[in-house]
Amino acid sequence: MNNETCLDIIILVVEDDELLNKSIRRLLDREGMRSEGFLSGSLFLSRPLSATDNILLLLDYTLPDMTGKEIIAKLKDRGLDIPFVIVTGHGDELLAVEMMKLGAMDYIVKALQFHEILPAKVKHVCREIANRKKLAEAETELRESEEKQKHLEDQLRQSQKLEAIGQLAGGVAHDFNNLLGGIMGNAELIKMHKAIDPEICRYADRIIQASTKAADLTGQLLAFARKARVNYTRINIQARIENAIELLKHTIDRKIEIVTRFTTEPSFVLGDANMLENALLNIAINARDAMPNGGTLTFETNMVTLTKNIFPCDTEDLVPGEYIRIAITDTGTGIDKETQKRIFEPFFTTKEAGKGTGLGLAAVYGCVCQHKGQIKLESEIGIGTTFTILLPLVLPELLSEIPVDSVCVNGHGNVLVVDDEKVVGDTLGEILKSLGYSPNVFCDPLEAIDYFKINYKTISAVILDLIMPKMSGLDLFRAFKKLKPGIKVIVASGYSDNNQEKLVMQEGAMEFVEKPYKVYEMSKALSRVLGDEGK
Length: 535
What we know:
The chain is of the alpha/beta class. The protein folds into four domains: 3-111, 3-Layer(aba) Sandwich (Rossmann fold), CATH 3.40.50; 153-224; 233-392, Heat Shock Protein 90, CATH 3.30.565.10; 414-534, Response regulator (Rossmann fold). It is 47% helix and 20% strand. It contains 16 helices and 17 strands. It has helices spanning 3-8, 18-30, 41-45, 68-77, 93-101, 114-192, 198-224, 237-248, 273-289, 337-342, 360-370, 422-435, 445-455, 473-483, 498-506, 519-530; strands spanning 10-14, 34-38, 55-60, 84-89, 106-110, 233-236, 256-261, 268-271, 295-306, 321-330, 374-380, 384-392, 414-418, 438-442, 459-465, 489-493, 511-514. The strands form four sheets. It has a five-stranded parallel β-sheet with strand order 2-1-3-4-5, sandwiched between helices. It has a five-stranded mixed β-sheet with strand order 7-9-10-12-11. Strands 14-13-15-16-17 form a five-stranded parallel β-sheet, sandwiched between helices. Helix 7 (198-224) packs across helix 11 (360-370) and helix 8 crosses helix 9. Mean pLDDT is 80; it is low at 309-315 and 398-403.
């Protein structure tokens, strides 16, 4: 054992013979070891002790006030497992064996060679203590490593699970949006008839309203699947939180206090203002429901810098840079561990039947991921829940939201429509006729190409779906461009494949209209594409 190890461990000598006690301590001192002396068990037990102390107890078995066995029992009652060496008189070897069974690391008999063998015995035990400590640290490190590995594996499985559910949800939303497009389009066509009965018009309005609500649900599915179309603008996120709070005040119980703790300067992110505000509202509404008897709902923001070397736990998949941290905390009932594992799954809800779709937090998860951020949950039963969102910050840019004008624009020209859903294509054809255009509708992309080869000179514009079974919208667009390089194309889709959408827009498509669309949205897109040609 080196001198540093000797200095690390304090030897506590419990011996009632004062001369022997001093003699032992002088001997240890000459060997470079620190020590403290006690003449009784009660004096020793009055010394402050903790499980983290780096000490060795040199314990005489027979003391005037208690035995060594009683001292060890009292230490164990305190939850202390202090390493000790037992010291016995000649002829008490059986007692020493009994103490070894209780955990003694060694024993020394008070015999003629006592002073000669004591230093070597103590050094040996100190070396063993050091080895045990290193082994314990290694075991702790291994256990923590295994726990971290298990945590990462659980995260990967959960991510893969959510990704698989997302693909399914995105596919369902795409098909459902196509159906909604047909329903909403035909309802709007009914309203556009001049001689329509007012009562029928009201029925059509109800159909459109119901379809719009259904479209909101598919929007939540697409948000979870990260396939929702994001209208990027520069957003003051704190202003959006304040907007969400204003909306909450109309629905939240007065027994719930809303607290805000914002950073001093406005914080800007690049994203879809409505999507982010809805995400904040979804979390807040869940918090409200978790506090039926009142409580505190806290919105907090602060800046976080992530670098290659400084990454908080569970943020390894984020890009280094400046982030805003948004924490939404309630003092509600809390969420159990099993529920936490499924909290972001679509259609999973703990609410009563009819009181929740199970899509709110799923949409929040997808929205945050689509904005290149991260969301995590911390909760404890009976204490409350915190949802923490990290979003990348952006520098101020001249981006602004464009006001919506819902007036339809009429036009003229030959328009080729390609959509694999017949009801969608036929409905769009009727809408185009009502706007003054001459449509030609195809469900099969290959048939559309054959028609285009013959008639491309007379076709003013093409409206095509992005996701189709026989040929993708991107491939169909490329085929049209080969025949007519300047062809004006509008992409209409209810499922945003970001890669395909970016490519088709980069390669020359002029507009993207998200399904299910309103008549005025498509009319304005066509008007912008055709310009004077369509007037």
